[in-house]
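Here is one chain, start to finish.
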Amino acid sequence: MRRNDSFNSVGSFGGGGYGPTIIIDRCLSSHMLAARREESTEQDSPTMISTNFSSNGSLQQYKSYVNDYIRTIRFQVVVWYVGAVDVMQGQVVAKFRVSMFWNDDGGGNERRNRMTKLESSEWVMQGRQKAVEQKISDEISERTVDIPPLSILNAVSFDIIGKPEVKLLREKTKLMRWTCLYKAVLFQDETNMRVEKFPHDEHDLCIKLGILAHRGQGSRWDRNKWRLALATEEDSQRSTRVPHGLLVDHVKIPNFNHDSQNALNFQFVPLGFGSSKEDDSDECLEVKVHIYRESNYFDWNIMPMLATLDVVATALLLLDATSFFQRALLFLNITFVEIGIRMQLDSKLPNVGYQIKMQTILNNSFFRLLGLELESSMVYYLTHIRGWSVEHADIIDMIAASISLVHAIFMLHVYYKDKRPPMKRTSAPKQVGKPITCSPQMYGTPTTATPLLLPLNRQGTSQNGTLDQP
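Its structure:
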């Protein structure tokens, strides 16, 4: 499993705050820059360079690395809206834009007419897997290009807002961009939607993207030739502060919070179906948003009230054992108050087929009151029927009160142990001039990399092995 975290509120274009992908991108640029320099040097002194390259084969490794990089389909995902989470059906509505970048290798069919003057051109989608370039000039020319057929793997239904756009970003490298805005109903993993810890439950909302069609051996998008990766800064052209995607700042999920500094998590995971051969298995991209429920209503309204009622009920044991009628009447009054609270809360609890934590707390509070009621009946029976002294009855009351308080404290611990600490809503300042080391563990994150990567800044290769921010 390949993983990359996106810190969508930390840093900006040059801040280096969005994880290891930017380091790989700069290392790649350094690698390609070194290759160009060595090729130019080879033309000036062919004898010396040919000897050096024959000994270490670095130029061939550079070219092989560039070819591996070009043959990738790179994703960018920007989430614009997340609706209410339905834990019963395990669904959520989301609006997001998916952009794909790839370097066209000329696999599409071409139909061209000779032109004398080119004025403008545009790409128009033709179906789901083709785009047609229409060039407006003295004569009209068309050229088709193959589009990777994107699939939303966990979509129940979806709508396309507007129409997909295709654009040639760089003529020299044939860098293409396909982008589309979706509004989809996404189903989530059942185990991820369970709410046993309500109201302190946490979930990972997931968008699964992949290329399913034409991925077989020898097909147009052969999985062995076209790897899936994340968009780089060169692809996004610094249109977003995180090149491979982010959660827009204004997104608010009803009844839930999310970590604004670590909003999206990108992972490449194997597909759960397809080829049975392990070496021939394909991958899909999982974009996850980690959310946790807003629980202040229960934390600061319901639980303090229940705790106060428990203390008051336990304090009733201070009454003499002979005052059974007064004890029983007050216990029943407190019990009816808790029943009213329970009936009001049932409308706010998720309607699932298993018991959740909040129901456990309410049940234990109710059973504790009934236990105190039974204890009062027992000591009254012992003093009036069996002839026990009041002193012995008071000892039993003290033991029952101690057990009741310990049980109440334990249930408070059970409730609050899963509560998340409040998030610090502070934005990190932009770091200027601080070096970033190209560490070996960053190799292999989502763009293809080799152990011979060289660190660099945006202007060129660094000599001290660090990355200088502009």
